[in-house]
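Q: Please design a sequence for this.
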């Protein structure tokens, strides 16, 4: 019985394979081709870095330290601007100042952390410097790790803001159900009717007002750091696509194989996570 393979990807070849041995030969040939291209591009990248180091005086460790300091300075100026009611937003002053002081203190701790790791950053840069000799995909992976190392505090700030916003949203949502005479049933995983006493409604109203007035401030901090988080994820996604392009696809796809399509359900779940402050 003949197995017919067809062109179904952009990086694939139009193939008509009749035997398993022929398919293995084609796959092995494509794999060696991808490995050679990956090694060639990686060696070229390493050669460029060596040239910049010896001819132009480019110091990678200095560049990493300056980049980390630039990111910290940007976050510091951004936090200070949020404390000053940016673009005319009427935020909760005490809460905004408390959150701003919290993030500024963590920026201070991050700068001390970077200074204490200067020798480690030098070793990391030397290590990444020659990863291109083992392939461009490995070099890109090392650069991704360094970028995550430099922007780690951005992710920490995003987690802090997301958790605070998530708690605030869940509180407002739960108390809004209380005013409508409903409550969430964790056993049945649904919203049921509920009976509440007068004192419960009064306390719920007070907490609802407090959470409602806090929500705009926490939402501003959350969406600012969420934007920064999504930008970094876009950069990492671009680097991942570069790795996939360099590695290529050694497998031969079957005829009739489904190509990746846009998943509406996943997109809606992703938007739901963003709205309710879940970690993405």
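A: Design:
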């Amino acid at each position: 019985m003949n197995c017919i393979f067809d062109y179904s990807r952009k990086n694939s070849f139009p193939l008509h394979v009749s035997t398993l041995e022929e398919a293995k030969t084609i796959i092995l040939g494509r794999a060696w081709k991808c490995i050679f291209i990956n090694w060639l591009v990686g060696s070229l990248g390493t050669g460029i870095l060596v040239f910049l180091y010896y001819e132009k005086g480019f110091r990678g460790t200095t560049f990493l330290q300056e980049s980390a300091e630039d990111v910290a300075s940007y976050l510091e100026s951004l936090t200070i601007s949020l404390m000053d009611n940016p673009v005319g937003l009427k935020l909760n002053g005490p809460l905004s100042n408390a959150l701003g002081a919290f993030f500024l203190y963590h920026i201070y701790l991050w700068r001390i952390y970077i200074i204490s790791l200067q020798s480690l950053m030098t070793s990391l840069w030397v290590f990444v410097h020659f990863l291109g000799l083992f392939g461009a995909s490995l070099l890109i992976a090392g650069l991704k790790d360094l970028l995550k190392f430099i922007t780690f505090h951005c992710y920490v700030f995003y987690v802090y803001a997301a958790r605070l916003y998530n708690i605030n949203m869940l509180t407002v949502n739960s108390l809004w159900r209380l005013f409508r005479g409903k409550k969430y049933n964790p056993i049945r995983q649904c919203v049921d009717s509920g009976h509440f006493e007068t004192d419960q409604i009064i306390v719920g109203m007070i907490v609802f007002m407090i959470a409602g007035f806090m929500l705009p401030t926490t939402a501003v901090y959350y969406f600012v750091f969420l934007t920064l988080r999504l930008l970094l994820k876009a950069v990492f996604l671009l680097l991942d696509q570069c790795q996939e392009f360099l590695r290529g696809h050694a497998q031969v796809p079957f005829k009739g194989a489904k190509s990746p399509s846009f998943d509406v359900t996943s997109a809606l779940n992703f938007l739901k996570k963003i709205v309710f402050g879940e970690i993405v």
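Q: Thanks. Anything notable?
A: Strands lie at 182-185, 190-193. Residues 35 and 71 are 35 Å apart (CA to CA).
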